[in-house]
Amino acid sequence: MLLSHVYKGSFPLPIDFIPGATAAWGTRRLRRAYNGHPLEILRSSDSTAQDVPFSGDRLNLGVLTTFVGASTGTVRTLYDQSTAVTARPLTQTTAADQPVLVSSGTLLTTIGGQPSLSFDGTSQFLLNTASFSNYIANNAGTILVVFLVDAINTANANTYDNDAVWGDTQGFVGLHLHSTTPDARTFNFDTTDDKVTQTIVTSTPYVHIWRHGSGNLDSFLNTKTAATVASGNTGNLLQQIRMGKNFSTAFFDGHIPEMMMWNVALSDVQIHLLGASVAHHYGIPWS
Question: For the residues of 158-213, what is the DSSP string, one character each?
Answer without folding.
Answer: SGGGSEEEEEETTSSEEEEEETTTTEEEEEEESSSEEEEEEE--TT-EEEEEEEEE
